[in-house]
Amino acid sequence: MERLKGIGVSSGIAFGPALVAIQRTQVIRFPIAPERVARELSALERARKRSRQQLQQIRTRISELKGADLASIFDAQLLMLDDPVLVGRAADLISAERVNAEWAVQRAFDEIAAVFNDVEDPYLHERKGDLHDVAGRLRMNLRGEKGGARDLLHDLDSPCVLVADELTPSVVAQLDWTRILGFATDAGSRTYHTAILARSLGVPAVVGLHDVSQRIPAGASVIIDGDSGDVMIDPAPSDRREAEARTRLQRGRQSAPRTEGPNETTDGIRIQLHANIERTDDVAMALASGAEGIGLYRSEFLLVGGPPDLAGEDEQYEVYRHVVQNMAPRPVTIRTFDIDERQLARPLVDTALDARWFPDAGRTGHAGLRGIRFGLAQPAIFKTQLRALLRAAAHGSLRIMFPFVSSVHEVRAARALLAEARAELQARGVEAGQAAIGIMIEVPSAAFTASLLAREVDFFTIGTNDLIQYTLAVDRTDERVSDRYEPLHPAVLRLIRQVRRGAVRQGIPLAVCGEMASDPLLLRLLIGCGLTEFSMTPGALLMARRVVSETSAGEMARIAARVMTLGTVDEIEKVLVEHFGPEGGREEVKTQ
Length: 592
Ligand code: PEP
Ligand code: MG
What we know:
Number of helices: 25
CATH topology of the largest domain: TIM Barrel
Structural class: alpha/beta
Radius of gyration: 25 Å
Bound molecules: phosphoenolpyruvate, magnesium ion
Mean pLDDT: 84
CATH superfamily of the largest domain: Phosphoenolpyruvate-binding domains
Oligomer: single chain
Helix content: 40-55%
């Protein structure tokens, strides 16, 4: 038996055979059975044909709009599609190594890219960009195929524990989680999106294990403990029995009836508890968990697997309307796309989405042209989304939220585009509903100017995940500095207090939607800071209801006032531990 220690990011225990997936640049490598080889080869051929058609259509469109010169870029891409070094090599890899087509395409691309990198020729470097796009397009078309990652996982004989080097949010969003009991990854930290998704899916997960994907042989029996962060390889029979008993207990708890009714502290302060969702399927889970609304719908997840301009107005409208109608009469807060513009040249949004949480040499950082900046830089895409949102607003209570705001100027510019979007609908004679307009406070400059921003909008939502990382200059995705990612840092608490003052002075509602709210101890402290609305992963709502019903807001306000005078995280923690015991009340809540 071998025991590894990582960061437990999603509660619960998973026990089963390991499926080891090496995912680089969002592609998972799956071993396939000999009889599947022919299927993968024909899928590759179909993807090539579809890619050819798409490129020809784009070529014609560009040539009509911008002339033949620009269109010639696509001639080069069409040639690459027919070149045996890419698709031919991928086909060889499928047959020789018995791997899935998506992975084979990526491997073939990596091999050619390595050759290009060795040559100091600017022309070849440019061609690498084209080749990257072609490979991306092939993969996009392969994803729509039967036999993609989702189907391969369907073919598993028995459910398994997924062990991977990294799992990007776009891949996680596409997997079939009924077949995966839990996962462990080399990379990651508590607030990266794969961890957030795991919590919303209720899948136990341990991340930040450094080299777990190399240490666990495929098929080995593993136990993953999402509470302690332990991963056991080939566990002893006694550990297995304990894991099985805990899994049964877990299932029993999951099926326990949810409590209904409003949430109030022991001294009668009404607390609103909403759900964070990433997919429309999460609505059912949010309702079952007693969510009083959707406090954050990360709309960029609907772009997974396609280019950003693929999501048309009608298609988006249907998605938003579905969420709003299913949650009615509860309010739904939809955040406009929070992706990075620099990746738009690529055919897939996945890279843009994942770039926010997986920085590495080939990807952009987290503080680029993302969030509201992306919207303002791409008014056509932004207005399409705003029109869809305004149309959906006619069907229920919808609030529109702009992410990553850092100035009043940005809010005014976004509101101007919103007015244009409304006028465009009016001109078409299409009904637009009323929607409250709010912003996420997740950049320190926004927190510092909260009193100014509060005059411009109808509500604030604090995104503590980003606010903490930018305030403390600690990358939320980098496990090497995860111990410095401190929600209890005096700077973070002071900023939250400042935001609240800004909101109260202007009389606008304020919520917290970052992961901070789903930690029982931090939730109590936030209540003490005067916050009354929280949004969190549906899986944490039951915990939050309990915490609220056991907490005295008055007592917490006194503790919070004391905490605000302290200079270090240790001192703050000591005060909280004095009140809630060594586990800070966390353990008591989790095991109830
Ligand atoms: C946040 O930053 O706290 C937040 C909720 O947004 P995201 O995690 O999507 O960046
Ligand atoms: Mg954020």
